[in-house]
Amino acid sequence: MKKIINSNYFYAFIALCCALWLFFFVSTPGVGSTRDSNQSNTSTVTKKATLTVPLQLQADVDKYYITGYPQNVKVTIEGPSALVTATKNTQNFNLYLNLKDLSIGQHRVQIKESGLNSELTYTIKPKYVTVNIQRRETKKFAVDIDYNKESLATGYEAGKTEVSPDTVTVTGAASEIEKINKVIVKPILPKGIKSTFDQEVLVQALDKNGKTVNVTLNPQTVHVKIPITIQSKQVSINLKQKGDSNDTNFTFESDVKSIRIFGTQSQMDAINDSVDIPIDVSDVTGNTKKSIDLADALGNKVAFTDPTNIDVTINTGSSTSTSTSGNTNDSTTNGSTNNTNSSNNNSTSNNNDSE
């Protein structure tokens, strides 16, 4: 036995057995091959994704103005998971319309792609689009402004409007440019506005019917400033009697001698250095004090005043009818006295004659 173990054939046999064991161990799937198996399975799993991609034009856009196509289209890609993920993250492909050989007019054109990996399948929606190719034209227009002046608070006026820039560049199909009647901004002022309007406003190109024309404006917005102010001045007040007085003489007193009036320039121009304040005495029977609402007293002559109210003391004087009655009584008394004196004189005369 010892002789066999020490022989070269024994060791050769052992080596052969080990080699066979290693061969079968490596060839049989097991725990050691899990990672490689997972990697292999990952590379063969398919995945689907839908992307939104900008649509590009292959055309002479300096010469032609092209409309009718969407800015973006959707493309659904499908293929190996890793490849779909990489394509989704990088989007290193293009979707485009080839219009180079097309003439002026409408055309139905297929959307094409370039740059997608050949292992991916794809579907583009929409597959076809209808484009309108027209001769390109560029023109400058002055910007008009239109706003509702009724939005201003009572008595307030709008000054000279500022638009910056006051011209815009309009680009579009020559046929569309010809339709433009005016380029305008329409700022929307808050109801009852009392302060300067100062905002960016969208520019519109309109035809003679007031409909929007399909053109490109540069810039698309302009800065609009509308100064909104109200005029005012200080005036003295004249307290004037109003209503039936019943021949009563009234006098008026107030601690307020002058007020500030507010309104439009035309309202200010119509008033000199003073205003008449009517004091209604139709319900006054004696000395009293009234609070006068200046807005009601002045009506539409001004927008409002400062102060808005004043206190007026109303004093009543002597009545003319009372004075007349007094004179009549005095005359009657005097007459009566004279008659008495005459009677006394007659009585005295008679007595003397008797004697």
UniProtKB/TrEMBL annotation:
Pfam families: YbbR. Residues 309-355 are annotated as: Disordered. It comes from the Bacteria. InterPro entries: c-di-AMP_regulator (IPR053154), YbbR (IPR012505). Residues 315-355 have a biased composition (Low complexity). This is Cell surface protein. It comes from Companilactobacillus nuruki.
